Amino acid sequence: MTKPADTSELAATEARRLGVIYGLAAYLCWGFFPLYFKSVKVVPPLEMVSHRIVWSLAFLLLLITWKKAWRSMLELLTLPKSLAVLFATTLLIATNWLVFIYAISVGEVLQSSLGYFINPLVSVLLGFLFLRERLERPQWISLALAVAGVLYLAIEYGSMPWIALALALSFGLYGLIRKALHVEPLVGLTVETLLLAPFALYYLVHLNQTGAGVFLTHSTRLDLLIPMSGIVTAIPLLLFAAAAKKLRLATIGFLQYITPTMHFLLAITIFGETFTHTHLVSFLFIWSGLALYSWHAYRFVTRQQVR
């Protein structure tokens, strides 16, 4: 006869296994994003973001109906404070999308990968500044190495890598604010998208009326790819939410390096972006900071398990 403790342990192991599968799927999807957005680069960034919002909402509402979650969504819409938080987070994630699509369209995938590499360290800094989380010496050194890498790149090129910084800050702030709101992921994401949908739809209608829009004016292939942005946007977010429920934050932290690594490899192998000596030095600073940060996180988790 199987002991209850054994059953519980098997269930926990299975949950972790599923969590890793969901997490890998989410970060691999995000890793291939540059290929998708390169295929629709003829669409201006603001128009593409508007399509992402509108088509994501359509897909999410189908999921809400399938999950029978309309009541939860309508209840959330009656909470002014929660809506204010979600409006702030949706502006941040939309900004992140806009900057990322712009980076793809102008051939700056390498800089976008830099942004997502430094994002974990930005999150650590935001936790210190706004949540009063105590930083230990290895974390301070990690932050210093990341700052050194960004400053070196800025000094050598004569300007700040604003794309990387905007991506890291917008996603870091999104996570910080979203952390304060305990809402079921599908419902929260749907309401976030719903709040911006009227503005996005108005902009798309305006483009259509003025003849400036791309959708339904170019090729059939493009007209099929643009609506897919809703599925492309929503699925990895939902996979990530499912993974986050089943995995430790430390595990999620390690998995999140998959996406910028894939962006980095795509930039220098497929998109032909130049990886200079300056890039190498800057990335080495940042990768060193990430390695130290990861090692410290791993040691912390190990100590917790021993106790």
Question: How do the helices and strands line up, and which of them pair or pack?
Answer:
Elements: H1 4-31, H2 33-39, H3 45-67, H4 70-76, H5 80-105, H6 109-130, H7 137-157, H8 162-179, H9 185-210, H10 220-225, H11 228-246, H12 249-255, H13 258-269, H14 277-306
Helix pairs in contact: 1-11, 1-13, 3-5, 3-9, 3-11, 4-9, 5-8, 5-9, 6-7, 6-8, 6-13, 6-14, 7-14
Please characterize this protein's 3D structure:
Helix 3 (45-67) crosses helix 11. This protein is 82% helix and 0% strand. The two termini are 30 Å apart. With 307 residues, it is mostly helical. It has 14 helices and no strands. The protein has one domain (45-229, 276-306). The mean pLDDT is 85. One of its GO terms (cellular component) is plasma membrane. Its main location: membrane. The chain crosses the membrane at residues 20-37, 49-70, 82-104, 110-131, 138-155, 161-177, 186-204, 224-242, 254-272, 278-298. Residues 18-153 form the EamA domain. It is a multi-pass membrane protein.
Strand content: under 5%
Instruction: Label the structural class.
Output: mainly alpha
- Uncertain regions spanning at least 5 consecutive residues: none
Shape: globular
Number of helices: 14
- Gyration radius (Cα, Å) is 21 Å
Q: Can you count the beta strands? A: 0
Instruction: Return the string of H and E elements.
Output: HHHHHHHHHHHHHH
Main beta-sheet strand count, sense and barrel state: none
Separation of the first and last Cα atoms: 30 Å
Overall pLDDT metric: 85
Helix fraction, binned, reads: over 70%
The structural domain count equals 1
